[in-house]
From TrEMBL, chains A, B:
GO biological process: NAD+ biosynthetic process via the salvage pathway
PANTHER family hit by this protein: NICOTINATE PHOSPHORIBOSYLTRANSFERASE (PTHR11098), NICOTINATE PHOSPHORIBOSYLTRANSFERASE PNCB1 (PTHR11098:SF8)
Organism: Streptomyces pristinaespiralis (strain ATCC 25486 / DSM 40338 / CBS 914.69 / JCM 4507 / KCC S-0507 / NBRC 13074 / NRRL 2958 / 5647)
Domain of life: Bacteria
Designated name of the protein: Nicotinate phosphoribosyltransferase
Amino acid sequence: MNTADLGLPVDVPSTALFTDQYEFTMLQAALKAGTAERRSVFEVFTRRLPEGRRYGVVAGTGRVLDAVENFRFDAGVLGFLREQHIVDEPTLQWLSRYRFSGDIWGYPEGEVYFPGSPIIRVEGTFAECVLLETVILSILNHDSAIAAAASRMSAAAGGRRLIEMGARRTHELSAVAAARAAYVGGFDSTSDLAAGFRYAIPTVGTSAHAFTLLHDSERGAFQAQVDSLGRGTTLLVDTYDVAEAVRTAVDIAGPELGAVRIDSGDLLLVAHRVRQQLDELGAVDTKIVVTSDLDEYAIASLAAAPVDAYGVGTQLVTGSGHPTCSMVYKLVARARSTDPGAPLEPVAKKSLGGKMSVGGRKWAARRLDAEGIAEAEVVGVGEVPAELAERQLLVELVKGGDVVAREPLDAARARHTAAREGLPMSAIQLSRGEAVIPTEYV
Amino acid sequence: MNTADLGLPVDVPSTALFTDQYEFTMLQAALKAGTAERRSVFEVFTRRLPEGRRYGVVAGTGRVLDAVENFRFDAGVLGFLREQHIVDEPTLQWLSRYRFSGDIWGYPEGEVYFPGSPIIRVEGTFAECVLLETVILSILNHDSAIAAAASRMSAAAGGRRLIEMGARRTHELSAVAAARAAYVGGFDSTSDLAAGFRYAIPTVGTSAHAFTLLHDSERGAFQAQVDSLGRGTTLLVDTYDVAEAVRTAVDIAGPELGAVRIDSGDLLLVAHRVRQQLDELGAVDTKIVVTSDLDEYAIASLAAAPVDAYGVGTQLVTGSGHPTCSMVYKLVARARSTDPGAPLEPVAKKSLGGKMSVGGRKWAARRLDAEGIAEAEVVGVGEVPAELAERQLLVELVKGGDVVAREPLDAARARHTAAREGLPMSAIQLSRGEAVIPTEYV
């Protein structure tokens, strides 16, 4: 992982303005009322999975830790808040000293989640916790949506290689986070160099139709590519006639040709024809990469086709129909005074209209059946039942303001594979359904 | 607009890695083949609008200009490309001197577009143009998707105020771009402070349910908020019982109470009740703000309700069902030699499978009917017919590498309003349909 500050925006020096204005005005009002320092617990959870989905995937936790650590107010940010009269002087003074000093527990990155799972639990004074709402939700809602789509696609791909190539279909920095989340969800590589730079995700890519069209003939383009990138390169064979292109490709590169890429047409049909042609030409080790508006259903439909790798763009970076999660950040408990020893009291919104929440500081555990397969997400307040003590899901992420749970991205990726394998088989069915295990409140 | 470099990632110092790897490998192969310096024309266009949509909205153009200007390779980026063996030494040498020196024309920001509209036209050497593909598409595909949703919502709101508050539902930097695009599409303000900081978009926000729950009573919370933020503030009235909250709110703030916000329940019903209650309490000037999973349809359905402002989150920043556009960046013409005087020849992909494109360097104009209303998007290669000369859509954005078309965001916003008003009335129908005017190729 490249953490050097090279002036690139992917290396975030401050996250303090990724904040909705109301967090600052609430802070100001609470400071004046003397309630800002009441000990408080906020939790991130979702009331429902996206329609039809069987499980969610926690992604972005590592980015949340970076964001919390970098949540600082320098002179420029404070000057903006002052000029725009967003908060008053006492609040600006308070902000100038801001550094999160509380505790954060949460589901580790790559873990699966269900409705009601307390994905992140932030504990500290109201003032220090309330400011983190927007940036934590932005990261988790985006990254988890991409990881969930990636997980479905990787299940559908059944071990074949998956390349993330959606940078052009989403905001240029979402793209970097999307490549990261896709990797957590099971993708193998990305076309996005900023993601390779920032997160050391393997990068791939060779050529587009423009390269063929630049040259006077397809043969000239293929020759130029092989001359420069070697016989192991991937040649794009669908600019003109696919069969002709495959013939030319093997003629130039020989059986050592790395791969051919097909980016249009009936992929099932074309892949079969191309495989047969490659084999007849002796290029039995040349791989076939397909890339054309793929989603998890298209990937599954190509299971019987002679395809070696899938490149996925639009549908991956837009969450395959669900570009965001519905995670919220809610105050679930707070002390009645600013005395640090004052007990926490559960709180919850009571109004009608489907936005109820459950008060109290929560634990969560996944109960397994006799075969060791998950059978329920158990969420509770208070003591953890002894039989679930070893199955608890929340881990300590930040302790007294210090990040204590940094890990390589590969750890999150491996955790996701293991977590998904621990679910009932029906979790990876692509058909629409309910959450694959129920959430039980105890 | 705040352009000071305060170390915030929203102020992008280099955009050179927001690039798919294949752009670099194509560059390397073309440099070796001697074709890299062939004069080339790339165009951004879309083959179709999102299903059911009547028009598209160009947004992000200003960000594209920033990205092109900042597309530079410093030692850190070059070191990464070298270490990862992404390109060879001659290519790294070439990149170290990179500065786009060509010309860019395009639809001005806020303009509407249709299938085939040449939204951006980039002209220069193949080498300098090919590298810009991903970053240009990322920006336009994201920002235009948000602006299109914003435009539909602003048409549905019929002059009532619209607040963008979706930061928590999308990547933290997408959020900043989304607030900007929403403003172009007709929104009035944003909750996102980074967007206020970077683009001087008006920011708003007062309090969340957590603020009420922090305090020992709703009355205590309202009193604290009014004490700190004044009687003109907006009180959130749906934490417990709405009618009780409205009574308490007016009791504390008096008829000078700025607004009440309703964030749950049957908004149509609740808004009517709250308006009646406010009027009976004498708070006839107190506004009603509604915020709860709104989209353009929900906004339209509240047209007859006594609502003064809409806060829109999820559905705005996810493009209301269409989180990305399908814009592509295609080589449409190139010279057959590197002689700067060599004529441009049209090129186009010929393979079957629905990804056809039209070769040649294009102009576009919008033909009007006798009433001055748009009746066709006319796209052509070669001479512009005299009767359309005054209706051309592309303007010069970059000349010889220098940005020549920077403008305030308000100019793009005003342009969008005017462009939408120039379309047939059916453009702003929310029902699904075809593009409101046809694209004619001449």
